[in-house]
Structures are given as C-alpha cells and as structure tokens.
C-alpha cells in the first residue's frame, strides 16, 4: 500500500504537476511503490504537503504514459504488467524504431554516431561495474531514445517517451533481462555499425532483430514467473 512508502517530501510550487509526476515515476520504477498498488491522492497530497488537484493531474499524466491505470470508483493504481501487454509494447517499439532508424541513417547518420557510440560505451561501463538492473535499463532506453531523437521526427520522440516508462516497469517486474550484462551492451553494436555504413536496410534489420530478441526474453521471463508461482 502507498501508506507504507514514506519517501515523499514537500515540494515547492514551481512546475508542480511535472515534479509530482517525476517523484511518482521515480518511486514506481525504483520499486518503492509496487505493481498493482493503489495510489491514493489524499495520501500522496498529505506526504507532499499539497492539495489533491496537482496530484490528480500528475496521476493523469502517468496514466497517459501507461504507467498508471484508473479503475472506476476505485482510483489510480500502478499498472499490472502482463506478458501480453509487454509483447504488444515491443511490437509497437519495432514499428516505431525501425521507422526512426531508417530516417536517421538516411539523413543524420554522422551527427548521431558520437552520442550513440558514447551510449554503447556507457552500457559497457555499467557492465564492468556490475551496476543494478535499472541503471542498465535506463542506459539502454537512452540509446533507443537517441535513435528517435536523432531521426529529426518529433512525433517519433514523443511516442517513445510515452512508452519508455511502461517498458521500464515491465523490466522491473521481472527483475532481469540478459544474464550477462556485457552481452546486453554488445547487442547494440551491430546497430551502430549499420548506421556508420549508411546502410538503412541493414540498420532496420539490426534494430528489428535487437528488439525482437528482447521481446522474446522479456515475455519468456513473464511466463517463467507465472509458472513458478504457487497454486
């Protein structure tokens, strides 16, 4: 229950709704508020020393991003992620990111490469340091965000940002992706290589394969979790 999460502190009024939303996102993605938990507006408002109005607006923002769901006559809850919903999400990412990488490779490859290479290096650094799962996930999502951003299509970037937190929530629920974090970093290298060659078809194939493999791993972890639960 939310009442058990005591990490909220009073906020000032500058950019209030966005700051409330970010505080809630951080609490959810850190595991402080678990999947399926009720998000009581009154409790959140009291802990943050706010009225309920900005809290309600923030929860609506989280609902639009897929992180929170509203249940009639019951209020807001952290979304319960399933194998089916995650599979659908990855299918959407394939459509989005293949379009983004084609445009990037054809129009903006040289400008995009330094940041993409730096992000792959960051993934390797995190693997060397044995960083926690969410550090790896955040770095991975930043790589994919850079692809959408560097495509030059603002709609691609906006859509990616809408689904990014739901992707992170799914990975938080299963608690793992690749057993070897160095392998996770290495899977991004063929994507960068294809962009460097200005080969749009190869880049599309590389990122489609990359996301498809992640989809299979994530959904299998969900099914494994279901099978391991006691009857």
Automatic annotation (TrEMBL):
> What UniProt keywords apply to this chain's record, in alphabetical order?
DNA-binding, Transcription, Transcription regulation
Per UniProt, residues of the HTH gntR-type domain are 14-81
Please give the name of this protein. Putative D-xylose utilization operon transcriptional repressor
Listed GO molecular functions?
DNA binding; DNA-binding transcription factor activity
Decide whether keyword Transcription regulation is in the record. yes
In its UniProt entry, the species of origin is given as Pseudosulfitobacter pseudonitzschiae
User: Known SUPFAM superfamilies for this protein?
Assistant: GntR ligand-binding domain-like, Winged helix' DNA-binding domain
Pfam families, alphabetically? FCD (PF07729), GntR (PF00392)
Q: Which residues form the signal peptide?
A: none
């Amino acid at each position: 229950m939310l009442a058990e999460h005591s990490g909220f502190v009073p906020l000032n009024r500058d950019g209030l709704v966005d700051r409330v939303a970010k505080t809630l996102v951080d609490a959810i993605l850190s595991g402080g508020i678990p999947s399926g938990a009720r998000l009581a507006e009154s409790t959140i408002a009291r802990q943050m020393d706010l009225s309920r109005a900005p809290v309600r607006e923030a929860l609506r923002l989280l609902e639009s991003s897929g992180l929170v769901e509203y249940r009639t006559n019951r209020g807001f809850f952290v979304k319960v992620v399933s194998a089916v919903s995650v599979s659908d999400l990855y299918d959407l990412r394939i459509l989005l990111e293949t379009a983004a990488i084609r445009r990037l490779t054809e129009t903006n490859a040289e400008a995009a490469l330094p940041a993409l290479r730096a992000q792959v290096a960051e993934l390797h650094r995190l693997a060397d340091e044995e960083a926690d799962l969410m550090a790896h996930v955040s770095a991975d999502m930043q790589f994919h965000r850079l692809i959408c951003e560097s495509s030059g299509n603002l709609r691609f970037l906006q859509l990616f940002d809408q689904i990014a937190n739901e992707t992170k929530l799914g990975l938080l629920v299963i608690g793992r992706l690749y057993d070897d974090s160095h392998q996770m970093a290495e899977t991004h290298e063929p994507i960068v290589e294809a962009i460097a060659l200005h080969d749009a078809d190869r880049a599309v194939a590389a990122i489609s394969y990359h996301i498809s493999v992640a989809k299979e791993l994530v959904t299998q972890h969900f099914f494994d979790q279901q099978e391991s639960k006691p009857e």
